[in-house]
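for the record, two folds in this file. i put them one after another cuz i was lazy. first one right below, seq on top, structure tokens after. the second one comes after a little note so u can tell where it starts
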Amino acid sequence: MRPILLQGHERSITQIKYNREGDLIFSVAKDTVVNAWYSANGERLGTYNGHTGAVWCVDVDWDTKHVLTGSADNSCRLWDCQTGKQLALLKTSSAVRTCGFDFSGNIIMYSTDKQMGYQCFLHYFDLRDPSQIEDNEPYIKVPCSESKITSAVWGPLGEYVIAGHENGEINQFSAKSGEIIKTVKEHTKQINDIQTSIDLTMVITASKDNTAKLFDSYTLDHIKTFKTERPVNSAAVSPIMDHVVMGGGQEAMEVTTTSTRIGKFEARFFHAAFEEEFGRVKGHFGPINCVAFHPDGKSYSSGGEDGYVRIHYFDPQYFEFEIES
């Protein structure tokens, strides 16, 4: 089936997120625009306007009431999902790299970059306390002096945040005290992306060391490794099958000298148990920056350096893939 092409960004896509029901997709890019789309037909519902820098991250809460975005304009913003109205503006000293709602939608977290003399911090805000938002004072602010956070997700029950770092470490930060509960270092280079499985029992990491790895989200035990020949920018676990999809490719600045074939710009499918690649899907004209499965598992989306979001539909039982011998 032909993919649905979503054209609403002028620069490379940085993150895409489905809501819980899967009827909406939220996409952000380096062009300041936050887009909301219908996932069924690719129609653009609207935009959330206000950021003045590249938007690095987006999240939507459990009942699709609020949207959270973080940007290089040194702000994290909370939006009303339906009206597009800005509900809160949290100013920071440096770019906001990751953000997310916990399961209840009451607590948000975001992390800032280590730049311009400021170190990386992980912030926790309780949205039920208006004074925290008005005073821009989180109830916990965790310094990360060793290595900056490059990607982070909430763990099960909102007890902690699982964060991947520039040096390849993964940490669990408590949401109550801010202390580090567990640390593992399975990757040798920067972690580009962390995503959870649909039941939050596992997380998958994508790294510049050309691998994606599956971990137990509670114990951080390493379960599986999926190897490629190129840096992996994003990886997602299928909600219904034993499949993993990965996107990546050559560094963007080297892309102009290579064809799409050599650049390895395909989305790649691996079997989650056997760690074997069984298919590739072409389409993007540059590295894939982010991938996400639809919550029903019957489609997935990818966002690329080329500024396009592509929705691919398939029947997971009957894949039509180009398999390389």
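(here's the note) second protein begins now
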Amino acid sequence: MIKIENESQGLKKSIFEFFRMKLPKDYEDLNFDIKIKIEDQNVFISIFGENINSSEILRLSDEKAHFAIKRYLFDLFSKEENFDPSFGILTGVRPLKLISKVFEGSSYDESLKILWDKYRIGNEEADFLYKIYKNQEDLRLNSNLTNYNVYVHIPFCPSRCLYCSFDTTIENKGKMDLYTKNLTYDINSYELEFSKEPNSIYIGGGTPTSVGFENLEKIIDALINKFGKTREFTVECGRIDSLSLEILNMLKDKGVNRISLNPQTFNEEVINKLNRVSNKDFCFWFDRARELGFETINMDLIMGLPGEDKASILDSIKKAIDFSPENITLHTLALKNGSKLFENSYHNTEDFGNLLEESKRLLMENNYEPYYLYRQKKSVISSENIGYAKKGHASIYNIVMMEELENIIGFGLGASTKILNEKGKFERNLNSKKS
């Protein structure tokens, strides 16, 4: 058990999170005491316990104490067998939000030095993050307080996948009709304070297409009537068992120019154990979407699903590349509260080796560039979730949402509205998760 002696709950939480992220396999078995005392620009820290006894005075230089403390702990524990050095001392969801400030103010070589000296991020990882930053640069330069984006949440699915932790409702005609009625009322009655059209509209879930043709058309019509045209209009069509030719044609006719078709894995043995429909008809639906001329098709894959090994995951990535969608998003399985896998205490013992490095190389060799990244806790391989895009197809919504660059207006259960104030800080308003 780790015991931390310091009056700041925030600092203690930050250190606990550091150990949970850096030593995920050993975290619960760690046993030592840490004493921390901060005076002026000095941090007095000592750590003692089984097989460890170390003390140091850390001198602060215009930075928060937890950065200096975590650098010290990083150096102290980095030789441990199961230590995860990825992202250095950063443990947050949005590493690029902080790191981008380094790239903005320094040359490439200077940035790499700063990222190691301050955050213990190695050169190879820093270079990958720099690629993402450069692929976001145009959008970053053109973002401002007057830009906004719209998110609509549809909490329905044909079935509940074993890895899903969302508040998802299985298809129910009465509930879907009532939800659509209330949702379109909220959209129609919203008092819009922006004078121009949105940068992007994103209908996510759940599986938006599971509400059926009529309900989905009503939702899209309400959005068009309220907000007008947009540069990027995304609808998640993730489950092929929710699709029809009628729905795909309607989406294209309404101006939707980006859709997601999400196989998650092409390993049929794995998919059949997830309470999810087979992908045997995936090619049919992908080809229909391609024939209709959607500008951007995204495909999601999840790495680390039960029963999958490294070779199986790489095979799924190769099959996704063969389809040649404009976007491929790689998620690592996260065991979250509320999912059946979490409730069943699923534990992954597979050795994935250098899977992440190979997946990055494979995608970039096939002209997919990383354009956004976020991290999740309780991931079975690594915390990274990375969006890749062919040139000119990076998703506006994914970038501005993840990097918190622009205003987001959220509709539907659990959706969050985030409005930037003049200081560049978000004022959040989270919708209820209960109907």
